[in-house]
Amino acid sequence: MNEMISVIIPVYKVQDYLPKCIESVLQQTYHNLEIILVDDGSPDKCGKICDSYARKDERIRVVHKTNGGLASARNAGLECATGDYVCFIDSDDWITKNAIQVLYQGIKRYDADCSVGKCITILDKKGKLKPQNTSKQPVRYVTTATSTEAMKQVLLTCSSSCNRLYKRKMIQKLRFPEGKINEDEPLMLRIYAKCKKIVFLNQDTYYYRKRSNSITTSRFSLKNVDCFYNSADNLAFIKKKKPELKECAEYKYIKTMLYCYVHLNLMKRNRKNNKVRKELHKNIRKNRSLALKNRYLPLKYKLLMLICSI
Fold this sequence. Notes:
The chain has helices at residues 18-26, 46-56, 70-80, 99-110, 147-156, 168-171, 184-194, 226-241, 246-266, 271-286, 288-293, 299-308, and strands spanning 5-11, 33-40, 60-65, 85-88, 94-95, 114-125, 128-131, 142-146, 164-167, 197-210. By secondary structure, the chain is an alpha/beta fold. Strands 1, 2, 3, 4, 5, 6, 7, 8, 9 and 10 form a ten-stranded mixed beta sheet that branches. Strand 6 (114-125) and strand 7 form a beta hairpin.
């Protein structure tokens, strides 16, 4: 275990959670780490907390930058990563004590390009933490997937860039799309497209803190339409690189289209969201027959497609 692993942690307005995240990395059973803390122009004490930890442990490097969002911070971390492997941790989450060792051994044992651990969702309600799920299958249970199988899973469900260990060569030429939310899915499709084998380990390695004011749980806004534009980009990518997954990509495209359209109709009307709503309505009408033929799309979505196309 002498290969270097780069751990990239984007940091913004998480001063109450950051120490727990950093401590969980410092306590890893795998020691050869390069810990990159990217202070994304955080207005609170995060920058000082990062610098304080850097003085205590020489494995820590701190990048201070102007605020550019989560994707920008992760990209900044990738720019200076030098490890043989890369993993991402969100700064309000934390990992199990042996997480990196488990993920590393998974790659080595199964000759994979990427390993994926199990995630425990922790509900954070006014500082009180409550686990929402834990693994029920034996620790040794694993599955391996080809590039196509893993990409199909991303398209039919969802995916995070966290709780994974990547060979750096799989990701070093790729970057998160900046200025958008839902930035994980486009990158994960492109990473998996480069992988020959992905291993999924049935062992808890990551604690995801679910907060009411986080990006993923906040109220719908016009910014959420990014997920539709991302799905359109992903569909174009799939048609070119993995045409056998075209119907899966169409499923995600239609589903996000309906999601955004319905929520925009529930919002107060203004010139900006009216323009986007009309664009979505036009696409719904254009893709109505495509949706009705899609074998992955549940009946309720097909009915909703018919209603929304009126």
